[in-house]
Design a protein that fits this description.
By secondary structure, this protein is an alpha+beta fold. It has 9 helices and 8 strands. Strands 2-3-4-1-5-8-7-6 form an 8-stranded mixed beta sheet.
């Protein structure tokens, strides 16, 4: 990627979202030289928890061996099929076999949901995650992912809709936490007119993110456009100045 874009966004981020964390980015099959490999988990581990290290500045490369959660392995493309009895796991369970998560009312609804799920071709490939400021000219991200609170999300949401008449510049599909930061953003990047993805509503992934934080993921095609028009958008108005005061208050309330 052009590192001028990287540097331009860092400046814009501090200008309009001061004191908030930079987004992270991922690339399927990206350059891995000098990037630490994410260790194999000991037992079950939510992939979203591992992204905390990336958010804190550590670049990581994930492979099939790095993902301990079955949902994570599916949504990152390493498992082509769901595990046995997934239809019961996501609904009301199976007596004597498993306790259901009760995220869907019936197994039949789960079946219908899964029939519409696209399998993505990452088998045999590694996935590189880096914080935005750690990207180099060797990187070509597929998507950019923000972990943010409501005031920043309001800006990101409005930016995602700024250059189009269609009011649905952002989608919020049901899925695991990892689907909102990888699977759906990757799928959107394959589209001619990709949409941003609002997420991290999965109760199972919520323990891995800070209080009041959700995610907004931009396919790279869309994010490049966003960076280009930030300085002509609502962000330069008095309205956003008022929101930035709330961002400062939020930063103070949530500082360590």
């Amino acid at each position: 990627m052009d590192t001028a874009l990287r540097d331009a966004y860092i400046e814009l981020h501090e200008k309009y979202f001061p004191g908030t964390e930079l987004p992270i980015a991922f690339e399927v099959g990206g350059a891995t030289e000098g990037v630490e490999k994410a260790p194999a988990p000991k037992g079950w581990r939510c992939f979203v928890c591992d992204l905390t290290k990336v958010r804190n500045g550590k670049s990581l490369v994930f492979s099939e061996d790095s993902i301990g959660c079955r949902g994570g392995r599916f949504y990152l493309g390493y498992d082509a099929e769901r595990f046995p009895d997934f239809r019961y796991f996501l609904s009301y369970g199976k007596p004597g076999v498993m306790e259901g998560e009760r995220y869907k009312q019936t197994p039949e609804i789960v079946d219908e949901l899964d029939r519409g799920t696209t399998r993505i071709p990452t088998k045999g490939k590694e996935i590189v995650f880096k914080r935005w400021d750690n990207l180099t000219d060797a990187d070509n991200p597929d998507a950019v992912v923000f972990f943010a609170r409501p005031e920043v999300l309001s800006g990101l949401f409005t930016l995602a809709n700024f250059d189009q008449a269609d009011p649905n510049g952002v989608i919020c599909p049901f899925g695991a936490g990892c689907s909102s930061v990888f699977y759906f953003p990757w799928l959107e990047q394959q589209n001619e007119s990709p949409k941003a993805v609002l997420g991290m509503f999965d109760p199972s992934a919520r323990p891995c993110v800070p209080l009041d934080v959700l995610t907004m993921a931009f396919p790279m095609k869309k994010f490049e456009k966003v960076v280009g028009y930030m300085d002509e958008s609502f962000l330069i108005t008095g309205t956003w100045e008022k929101v930035m005061k709330k961002i400062a208050r939020s930063n103070a309330l949530n500082s360590p």
